[in-house]
Amino acid sequence: YGPKALLVCGFTPPEQDAVMKLLAAVRLTDVPIIFAAATDGEEKLADLLRRTDQSGRNADSGLARAIIISGITESELHRTLAAYRQSGLPRPLWATLTPFSENWTLSALITELEQERTAMEQQQG
């Protein structure tokens, strides 16, 4: 659902470079990659995902690490997740854009994802 794009949050510039290499390796070179800045917390996801490819790159954001996926195929999603698990990069929060979430702010989505992760970890532990 949504425009073809990935919104990457909370990664340092060297980690951003590693994310870009990983995405190239899984052949997502035609997918715009947008890097969220610390000031983007109150922006709606739909607006952020319309930004130009690599906007915000090389800036520290201070946000929680998260990757919001929009408009890619199921096959692309599975390749990306599998490669990411093997990459050694820090574990992000993951989300896919939905008709419901596209009007959420980035901060609201990150808060929801953090609460879901905490609840799941408490159930497992």
Describe the 3D structure.
With 125 residues, the chain is α/β, with parallel strands linked by helices. 40% of the residues lie in helices and 14% in strands. The model has no long low-confidence stretch (mean pLDDT 95).
Please outline the helices and strands.
Blueprint: E1 5-9, H1 13-25, E2 33-35, H2 45-48, E3 66-70, H3 74-87, E4 93-96, H4 106-124
Parallel strand pairs: 1-2, 3-4
Antiparallel strand pairs: 1-3
Describe this protein with a few key phrases.
125 residues, alpha/beta, four-stranded mixed β-sheet, 4 helices, 14% strand, globular
Shape: globular
The share of residues in helices is: 40-55%
* Global Rg: 14 Å
Biggest sheet: strand arrangement: 2-1-3-4
The first-to-last residue Cα distance is 33 Å
Q: What class, by secondary structure content?
A: alpha/beta
Sheet having the most strands: 4 strands, mixed
- The secondary-structure element order is EHEHEHEH
Q: Low-confidence stretches at least 5 residues in length (pLDDT < 50)? A: none
Strand content: 5-15%
How many helix segments?
Answer: 4
Mean pLDDT across every amino acid position: 95
Number of strands: 4
